[in-house]
Amino acid sequence: MRIWVWLLLTTVLVSGIGYGQTGAAPGKEAESAERIHITADSLVADDNEKFAEFSGNVKAVQGGTEITADRLRILYQGSPAAGETAESDAAAGAQGSIQRIIAVGQVRIAFDEMVAQAQEAVYTTADRILVLSGPGSKVTKPDSGTISGSRITVERDTGRIRFEGDVEGIFIPGEKGLN
Q1: Domain residue limits, the chain
Q2: Average pLDDT by consecutive 10-residue portion of the chain (179 residues)?
Q3: What DSSP character marks residue 105?
Q4: H-helix or E-strand spanning residue 74
Q5: Which is the most buried residue in 37, 39, 48, 163, by most CB within 10 A?
Q6: 98, 101, 68, 79: which is closest to 7 by C-alpha?
Q7: Model pTM score
Q8: DSSP 9
Q9: How many CB atoms lie within 10 A of CB 60?
């Protein structure tokens, strides 16, 4: 069991929130090989259901990516996604590959010179899309400002960010602004 959990943890951020092997940003390939350090109050791993869930004061760090949350659930190969069967999911990739990472409760993710905060964050590894949801969800970029919305979609490959629902922005204009 210990080896399985260690193998799972070493792939969590490499193929998940951290830079993966495909679509990696230039110069970031080395970051994906860095060790991942995860701490929590408890861990439940279920190989039959294909998940591992860290609970209580969760902190996951790899290179420049840091995630903190109340809970962090990792769904890996064999975990049926909404509307999928276990059979179709099993054909999707190699055993042990991470499919989705779900962080819940006081979520904070620092990556790509940004900080994202939300009540829930769902990251899908196949398309490298991070969806933040809940009241007070926001993305802050130092020296640029903060934009909030009830649902924020971050496309890691393209750098596009979409804000929906009660969107509000506070910008730092630099030398020129609206005046």
Answers
A1: 2-132
A2: 37 38 40 74 93 95 92 80 44 59 96 92 94 95 92 92 94 71
A3: E
A4: strand 65-76
A5: 163
A6: 98
A7: 0.72
A8: H
A9: 26
